[in-house]
């Protein structure tokens, strides 16, 4: 009903479907989803999109159906928010969604597919449905027969199985965590974990957590919703028993390796991981996003695991050296191919890897080889392999004959799998609207053949095996015979209407031809029921069965060829190990590049990690990781002992501690951190953060009980090489008891040589510190958060500086904070009365404006250009910008140092016509890496964007000047006769000031136009 959804939404303050509750006119919810891009934020908040098997169709309802209609190319069912497709069309719809998804990018899209698994046991006739697969960017291929549930192939037992072994030492419990990865024959061990660290690893995204196997005393209460199963025996016996139980004959044992080294930090506990944004918590800014720009995806999972579980000084040093090299290189870099390599290996071992899986694997293996040689040339190959060997947990180091095995894998795939060029199959079904009956018939029949042939076409080479070769010939023969029969029996009458039955995969006539009465019969459907309103002939029916059967046989031969390829690769000595290493080479380099590109524009630097330091940490100009140095206040922090920190409410003490903890963790991992140059960190064995938090009623703990349990964990794991941050200990009990306990904890921390911050509002502690032993009290310094007082309208107003200074703050200024956050004045006045009874840095704002130069100030003249090629375009670019260009070869990415800097670039895009040639594109961007990636992902008829190459110049004067240069380069190249893809930006004349401000016109992506072959089309190629 028109506008019904809008009417219902108006009754709610927040519509769960995201529909606006303001009057929008007679607009249906279907159209709202189609037209309101802002509404896609609903899927960003509530992923994934659901596809549920309902009979023969996979359907979505409500908002998800609207997404499929708007961006998946489907029609609504009956004009309602319901849409679906048969199995044969799932992949094309999924591909279309990932290509056209307009939200935060395809990386934010997830599609969960639920399959039917027979009827349940209640006798109600209801069907069982279980999650079969979650499709994400990089994992877009749907595998129909790989179920994630009972009764399925062994491939569906998790990639990683968790075993927890309980230890009892000195009346204190600790746990050994075994993560068994059977398909890559590895078992990594994290020994002697406190409960909080165990939980942070089990509940992180990187650990499979369907069932936890447990060895110890009583079954643990901490497992929550996890299914816990008890096992017994020694270390090796338990692992072997679990493997044999889950994987049967396919179990081949695993290599055991400890994840902890002498220089590794202990894994972060759960509270610490939440407090510094490593594990998701809606209260805390994500550290993962700050490090690589995204919180989801393979790269984000890698970084999260890297921070949760420190890899040791040597591995961190290798990572740091790679990051430093990438920060300084001016060269374009080879592309990377990120795949879920462990999942691909699992598919290969099960013989279930698809063509898309092999193509992705081939590209990953190729790219890894290129990067290995590239790093050898640049002198960082040793650093890269330090990290790779740790991540792949190989007992004997890297694979011997790595390059030889790589070539063998590539050759096997090359001999069997159809390349992307060979796999191009015309699968677009033509529309019959507006066509005559005969033309409609031809289109319908052609679409029928398209749907059947694409079940086998383009997956393997047609001569991959003798069986495939013969099966393809049989399909073509049967198709020709069916076409002859159709022409004889269905096409002879121009008025005859052919019906395509997609459910029965058949062709029928709607009516029996009048001139051949009695020659036709009623067909039967797949359930052997006679279709009284459809007609066919015995010959057509026979040829149809032959053709459909031939396509199914061909599909089976193709699947057999892929299965044989999996077996051939699996039989290579160390073949799967080499594939694993290739996957990690791509991942490590991708993480490093994304990290450099993300943080260089934020003003972060790389601290040094030193084995012998007079301080645990010495950080210059540290600032919050969720802010930039221009918007966040910086502080210098040197810790060699405990810092007792006091401060008014809301003055930034928790922020300072969180910032120092995050910076120290990043530095130890070998990453950039939000600190100034000259910062240093010692080799730490633990980082512990205990923030102010509430009770945990589901665990039977009060706020104070939870505090004390965490402090007990801290004493059990931290040493004089640890960094500890405790915020407001003792606030969950009476002030007197709280101060006494807090003072005792602070004394013990100082006595043990622990370094860190101890923040408190319990000022009585400072009367107790002088009673500590002298050698203990001298390891405690007092710091406070400074405040300023400014005169506003004759009233003295508190202003937070967010700067550390020496001293003790004895005024929490709680009433100031209460007023700031809206406590009524009458309540504040009464609070001041009660208070009397009870008692017996410079912030950098804005940015510097630079003067705009005239257009002629940046231009030098160039001579005639005889050849209109990329070299000539580069001459124009360098002349106009007065800069030297960086070369961007095909399939290379820009150097990461350019990210966050204003750049102008020229791309040479090959034409796909037989005559060859190229078109040219000029653009400007402050994120040239992402922009080039966006260009290469485009699909424009006649142009091969994926193979484009180019030249890039950096424009130090900022975005305004970059746009001026872009406009001038376009004008000159167009005047010289270059074939330009877009000339829209030559019209820009007002470019603003140094940073693109000053009221200049703002360029938007949807303003740009492409001109290809004299035609204009929408484009999204500008920043």
List the helices and strands and how they pair.
Blueprint: H1 4-9, H2 29-35, H3 41-45, E1 49-54, E2 57-61, H4 62-71, E3 82-86, H5 87-100, E4 111-119, E5 127-135, E6 161-169, E7 172-181, E8 186-193, H6 195-202, E9 211-215, E10 227-230, H7 235-247, E11 255-258, H8 270-275, H9 287-292, H10 298-308, H11 313-328, E12 333-334, H12 341-350, H13 355-378, H14 381-392, H15 402-416, H16 437-453, H17 466-489, E13 498-501, E14 506-509, H18 538-571, H19 575-600, E15 608-610, E16 617-622, E17 635-639, E18 642-646, H20 653-669, E19 680-682, E20 686-690, H21 703-717, E21 722-727, H22 735-751, E22 755-759, H23 765-768, H24 774-777, E23 780-792, E24 795-806, H25 814-820, H26 825-838, H27 870-881, E25 886-888, E26 892-893, E27 903-910, E28 918-925, H28 928-936, E29 949-954, H29 959-976, E30 1009-1012, E31 1015-1018
Parallel strand pairs: 1-4, 6-9, 8-11, 9-10, 15-19, 18-22, 18-23, 20-21, 21-22
Antiparallel strand pairs: 1-2, 2-3, 4-5, 6-7, 7-8, 12-26, 13-14, 16-17, 16-19, 23-24, 25-29, 27-28, 27-29, 30-31
Helix pairs in contact: 2-4, 10-19, 11-14, 11-19, 12-18, 13-15, 13-19, 14-19, 15-18, 17-18, 27-29
Describe the structure.
This protein is of the alpha/beta class and 1023 residues long. Among the domains are: 4-135, MutS, DNA mismatch repair protein, domain I (3-Layer(aba) Sandwich); 437-567, Orthogonal Bundle (MutS, DNA mismatch repair protein, Chain A, domain 3); 608-812, Rossmann fold, CATH 3.40.50.300; 856-1018, no CATH class. Helices cover 37% and strands 18% of the residues. It contains 29 helices and 31 strands. It has a six-stranded mixed β-sheet with strand order 10-9-6-7-8-11. Helix 27 (870-881) crosses helix 29. The longest helix is centred in the middle third of the chain and has 34 residues, at 538-571. Residues 1-21, 146-158, 840-866 and 989-1023 have low confidence and may be disordered.
């Amino acid at each position: 009903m028109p506008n019904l959804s809008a009417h219902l939404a108006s009754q709610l303050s927040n519509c769960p479907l995201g529909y606006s509750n303001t009057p929008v006119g007679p607009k249906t919810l279907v159209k709202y989803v189609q037209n309101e891009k802002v509404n896609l934020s609903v899927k960003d908040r509530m992923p994934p999109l659901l596809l549920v098997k309902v009979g023969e169709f996979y359907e979505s309802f409500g908002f998800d159906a609207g997404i499929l209609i708007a961006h998946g190319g489907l029609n609504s069912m009956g004009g309602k928010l319901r849409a679906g497709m048969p199995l044969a069309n799932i992949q094309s719809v999924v591909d279309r969604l990932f290509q056209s998804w307009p939200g935060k990018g395809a990386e934010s899209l997830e599609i969960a597919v639920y399959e039917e698994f027979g009827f349940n046991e209640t006798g109600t006739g209801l069907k069982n449905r279980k999650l079969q697969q979650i499709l994400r960017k990089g994992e877009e291929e749907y595998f129909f027969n790989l179920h994630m549930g009972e009764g399925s192939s062994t491939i569906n037992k998790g990639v990683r199985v968790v075993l927890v072994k309980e230890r009892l030492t000195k009346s204190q419990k600790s746990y050994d965590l075994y993560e068994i990865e059977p398909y890559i024959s590895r078992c990594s061990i994290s020994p002697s974990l406190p409960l909080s660290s165990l939980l942070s690893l089990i509940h992180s995204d990187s650990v499979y957590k369907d069932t936890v196997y447990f060895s110890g005393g009583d079954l643990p209460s901490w497992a929550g919703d996890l299914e816990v199963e008890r096992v017994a025996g020694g270390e090796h016996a338990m692992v072997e028993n679990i493997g044999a139980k889950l994987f049967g004959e396919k179990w081949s044992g695993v290599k055991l390796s400890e994840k902890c080294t002498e220089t590794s930090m202990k894994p972060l506990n759960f509270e610490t991981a939440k407090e510094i944004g490593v594990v998701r918590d809606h209260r805390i800014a994500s550290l993962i996003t700050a490090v690589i720009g995204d919180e989801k995806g393979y790269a984000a999972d890698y970084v999260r695991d890297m921070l949760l579980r420190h890899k040791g000084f040597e591995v961190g040093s290798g990572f740091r050296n790679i990051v430093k090299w990438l920060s300084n290189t001016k060269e374009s870099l080879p592309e990377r191919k990120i795949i879920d390599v462990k999942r691909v290996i699992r598919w290969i071992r099960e013989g279930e890897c698809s063509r898309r899986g092999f193509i992705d694997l081939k590209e990953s293996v190729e790219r890894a080889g290129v990067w290995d040689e590239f790093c050898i040339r640049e002198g960082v190959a040793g650093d890269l392999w330090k990290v790779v060997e740790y991540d792949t947990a190989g007992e004997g180091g890297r694979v011997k004959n790595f390059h030889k095995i790589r070539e063998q894998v590539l050759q096997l795939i090359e001999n069997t799998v159809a390349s992307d060029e060979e796999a191009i199959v015309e699968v677009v079904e033509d529309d019959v609207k507006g066509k005559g009956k005969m033309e409609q018939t031809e289109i319908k029949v052609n679409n029928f053949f398209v749907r059947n042939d694409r079940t086998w076409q383009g997956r393997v080479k047609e001569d991959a095996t003798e069986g495939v070769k013969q099966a393809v010939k049989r399909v073509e023969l049967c198709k020709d015979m069916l076409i002859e029969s159709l022409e004889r029996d269905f096409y002879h009458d121009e008025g005859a209407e052919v019906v395509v039955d997609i459910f029965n995969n058949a062709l029928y006539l709607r009516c029996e031809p009048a001139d051949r009465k009695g020659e036709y019969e009623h067909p039967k459907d797949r359930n052997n029921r006679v279709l009284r309103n459809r007609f066919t002939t015995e010959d057509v029916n026979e040829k149809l069965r032959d053709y459909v059967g031939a396509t199914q046989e061909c599909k089976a031969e193709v699947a057999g060829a892929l299965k044989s390829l999996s077996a051939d690769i699996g039989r290579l000595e160390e073949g799967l190990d080499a594939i694993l290493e290739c996957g990690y080479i791509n991942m490590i380099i991708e993480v490093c590049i994304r990290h450099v590109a993300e943080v260089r524009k934020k003003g972060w630097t790389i601290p040094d990690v030193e084995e012998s330091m007079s301080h645990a940490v010495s950080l210059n100009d540290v600032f919050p990781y969720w802010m930039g140095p221009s918007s966040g206040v910086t502080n210098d922090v040197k810790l060699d002992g405990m810092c007792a920190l006091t401060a008014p409410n809301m003055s930034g003490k928790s922020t300072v501690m969180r910032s120092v903890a995050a910076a120290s963790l990043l530095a130890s991992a070998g990453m950039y951190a939000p600190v100034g140059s000259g910062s240093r960190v010692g080799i730490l064995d633990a980082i512990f953060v205990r923030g102010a938090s509430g009770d945990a009623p589901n665990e039977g703990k009060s706020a104070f009980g939870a505090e004390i349990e965490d402090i007990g964990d801290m004493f059990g794991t931290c040493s004089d090489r640890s960094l500890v941050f405790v915020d407001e200990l003792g606030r969950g009990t009476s002030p007197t008891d709280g101060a006494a306990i807090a003072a005792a904890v602070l004394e013990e921390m100082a006595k043990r040589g622990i370094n860190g911050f101890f923040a408190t509002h319990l000022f009585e502690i400072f009367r107790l510190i002088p009673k500590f032993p002298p050698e203990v009290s001298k390891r405690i310094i007092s710091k406070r958060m400074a405040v300023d007082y400014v005169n506003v309208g004759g009233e003295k107003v508190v202003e937070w500086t967010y700067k550390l200074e020496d001293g003790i703050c004895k005024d929490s200024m709680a009433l100031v904070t209460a007023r700031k956050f809206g406590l009524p004045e009458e309540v504040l006045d009464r609070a001041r009365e009660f208070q009397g009874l009870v008692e017996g840095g410079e912030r950098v704002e804005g940015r510097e404006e630079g003067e705009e130069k005239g257009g002629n100030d940046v231009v030098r003249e160039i001579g005639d250009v005889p050849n209109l090629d990329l070299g000539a375009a580069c001459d124009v670019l360098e002349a106009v910008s007065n800069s030297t260009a960086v070369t961007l070869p095909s399939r290379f990415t820009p150097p990461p140092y350019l990210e966050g800097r204003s750049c102008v670039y020229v791309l040479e895009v090959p034409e796909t016509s037989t005559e060859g040639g190229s078109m040219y594109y000029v653009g400007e961007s402050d994120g040239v890496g992402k922009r080039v990636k966006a260009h290469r992902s485009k699909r424009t008829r006649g142009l091969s964007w994926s193979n484009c190459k180019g030249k890039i110049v950096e424009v130090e004067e900022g975005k305004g000047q970059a746009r001026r240069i872009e406009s001038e380069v376009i004008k000159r190249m167009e005047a010289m006769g270059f074939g330009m893809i877009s000339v829209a930006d030559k019209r820009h004349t007002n470019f603003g000031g140094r940073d693109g401000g000053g009221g200049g016109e703002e360029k938007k992506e949807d303003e740009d136009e492409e001109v290809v072959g004299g035609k204009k089309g929408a484009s999204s190629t500008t920043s």
